[in-house]
From TrEMBL:
The gene is FDS1. GO terms for biological process: farnesyl diphosphate biosynthetic process. This is Farnesyl diphosphate synthase. Belongs to the FPP/GGPP synthase family. One of its GO terms (molecular function) is dimethylallyltranstransferase activity. Keywords: Isoprene biosynthesis, Magnesium, Metal-binding, Transferase.
Length: 342
């Protein structure tokens, strides 16, 4: 991804924002226009933009040549739709999780002037996606497929969030419900579909491909998304907060993290008791006991082994794909996340 494409990508954000705050379907006044603009600027462009930029990247790799201005604009607009969808999930997730920080700044709902208005802002973010699609893709042969894709991925993500919430929050905290298979299901639905499959699926549709014919691409991307989330779980505990932009709270929040699932698998009875007694407690002494156990069980080593095994498996799956262009897309994705620090 050249800096040129990234700056063009950011310019598209300004265009889309300006269209949305002047949407003829609603009569904005200055207050509402300013609110939406501030809300968008705070929540949409703040992250690494990996998901959005990868739509442009993937389209370029599929096409294999220079993109026209229109192709850059449209693939960027789809990339921003993915970022908008993500912003919607994150704004509402932070409320549900009672989080404090996101991307190195306070969560949107934590701002004194915002509070629970954030819930409605989430709904507005969600509704911006079909507005963008309608304005720029209405006449395209793949328009219905795009709308369908975003709807389906949103459903999968919300359902993944549901399994996460009911597993994490139902009644008394019961670690025995946590296993690799439940972790995998949560990750697959809550993260992998929208973060990995969605951007590539957008590029494939724009390139004129039929998604039905690319089930194996979906499978590889969902697998990659699983690997990405395991890294995320690992970094939550072992990453440096100043590097990852957030303070990890998975232990305090009783999250179904890969680390706790692995720890349960490797622990003896005495160690399991330490986990049961301390996992999900807010006080720093309990958190330190859990982290101490993670070190004792050498979860860093276990993770490194998982990382290299996953990488080999993914490369093998990718190289089995008949199309070199699709292989390039998948390898570019894998290259971005392998051994990442944040």
């Amino acid at each position: 991804m050249t800096t040129d494409l990234k700056s063009k990508f950011l310019q598209v954000y300004d265009t889309l924002k300006s269209e949305l705050i002047n949407d003829p379907a609603f009569e904005f006044d200055d207050d509402s226009r300013q609110w939406v603009e501030k809300m968008l600027d705070y929540n949409v462009p703040g992250g690494k933009l990996n998901r959005g930029l990868s739509v442009v990247d993937s389209y370029q790799l599929l096409k294999g040549g220079e993109l026209t201005e229109e192709e850059i604009f449209l693939s960027s607009a789809l990339g921003w739709c993915v970022e908008w969808l993500q912003a919607y999930f994150l704004v509402l997730d932070d409320i549900m999780d009672e989080s404090h920080t996101r991307r190195g700044q306070p969560c949107w709902f934590r701002l004194p002037k915002v509070g629970m208005i954030a819930a409605n802002d989430g709904i507005i973010l969600r509704n911006h996606v079909p507005r963008i699609l309608k304005k720029h893709f209405r006449g395209k042969p793949y328009y219905i497929d795009l709308v369908d894709l975003f709807n389906e991925v949103e459903f999968q993500t919300a359902s993944g969030q549901m399994i996460d919430l009911i597993t994490t929050l139902v009644g008394e905290k019961d670690l025995s419900k946590y296993s690799l298979s439940i972790h995998r299901r949560i990750v697959q639905y809550k993260t992998a579909y929208y973060s990995f499959y969605l951007p590539v699926a957008c590029a494939l549709l724009m390139f004129g491909e039929d998604l039905e014919k690319h089930v194996e691409v979906k499978d590889v991307l969902v697998e990659m998304g699983t690997y990405f989330q395991v890294q995320d779980d690992y970094l939550d505990c072992f990453g440096a907060p100043e590097v990852i932009g957030k303070i990890g709270t998975d232990i305090e929040d009783f999250k179904c993290s890969w680390l706790v699932v692995k720890a349960l698998e490797l622990a003896n009875e005495e160690q399991k008791k330490v986990l049961h007694d301390n996992y999900g407690k807010k006080d720093s002494a309990s958190v330190a006991k859990v982290k101490g156990l993670y070190h004792t069980l050498n979860l860093q080593g276990v993770f490194e082994e998982y990382e290299s095994k996953s990488y080999e498996k993914l490369i093998t799956s990718i190289e089995a794909h008949p199309s070199k262009a699709v292989q390039a897309v998948l390898k570019s994705f894998l290259g971005k996340i392998y051994k990442r620090q944040k």
